[in-house]
Write a structure and sequence with these properties.
Blueprint (H helix, E strand, L loop, with lengths): L2 H8 L6 H21 L4 H12 L6 E5 L5 H8 L4 E6 L2 H10 L4 E4 L16 E8 L9 H6 L6 E7 L5 H12 L3 E13 L2 E10 L1
Parallel strand pairs: 1-2, 1-4, 2-3, 4-5
Antiparallel strand pairs: 5-7, 6-7
Helix pairs in contact: 2-5, 3-4
């Protein structure tokens, strides 16, 4: 078991942005192998949900927190062709570039900061495996909503230990603000490490 897998299972992540970046830069070379061996189903399930919601395979998709490209790989298997990605791990992005399946890759922090992407740029967006302790939180969602066209889906999952009353209340607050509405929800019993996660799909208004 790699040191990174052990820390993931323990939810013992670095507590600074620079620490998280270093964590994924160092893990990048074995990231796909390690998670495949641990039965990581998140990317495949996120791509399958996108296919249910967007039947036109020529649409533009944003793979947010794309890492080494696992989600984009699953999307291309389903016929999606126009995929961009954002991540702040430079080593992960190098491997994503080598896949040759992204049109554009952006190295950027994902949070409340404004991304260098125009409003209403994408027909759909996936954020897979990033809403976990020490990583991202829902305060990034207004920026993600901003870059998705009205009617487009945002698909994301959340670690079962991370989902609590505050998380649900913050989701509902974005609904009350008229930013999006819930389209789908699924409890995934075997997301990774034989542990569950919650997958959501919201439609941008």
């Amino acid at each position: 078991m790699s040191a990174q897998i052990r820390l993931c299972k323990e939810r013992n992540f670095p507590q600074t942005e620079e620490g998280i970046k270093q964590f994924y830069d160092e893990w990048a070379p074995t990231y796909q192998k390690d998670l495949t061996e641990e039965g990581y189903t998140g990317p495949r399930r996120a791509a399958a949900t996108m296919e249910k919601l967007l039947t036109n395979k020529d649409v533009r998709i944003m793979d947010m927190a794309c890492g080494t490209g696992l989600v984009a790989h699953e999307l291309t298997k389903l016929g999606f062709k126009n995929i961009d990605g954002v991540d702040f791990s430079t080593e992960s992005l190098k491997l994503s570039k080598e896949r040759g399946i992204y049109r554009r890759l952006i190295c950027a922090h994902i949070g409340t900061n404004k991304l260098d992407i125009q409003d209403n740029s994408y027909d759909g967006l996936i954020l897979c495996g990033a809403l976990v302790s020490g990583h991202l939180y829902l305060d990034c969602m207004p920026q993600l909503i901003r870059i998705v066209k009205p009617g487009g889906p945002i698909i994301f999952d959340v670690d079962a230990e991370f989902k609590d009353g505050k998380f649900e209340a913050d989701l509902d607050e974005l609904v009350r603000k008229g930013l999006w509405v819930k389209e789908a929800y699924e409890l995934i019993p075997d997301f990774v490490f034989n542990e569950p996660a919650h997958q959501y799909a919201y439609k941008v208004l």
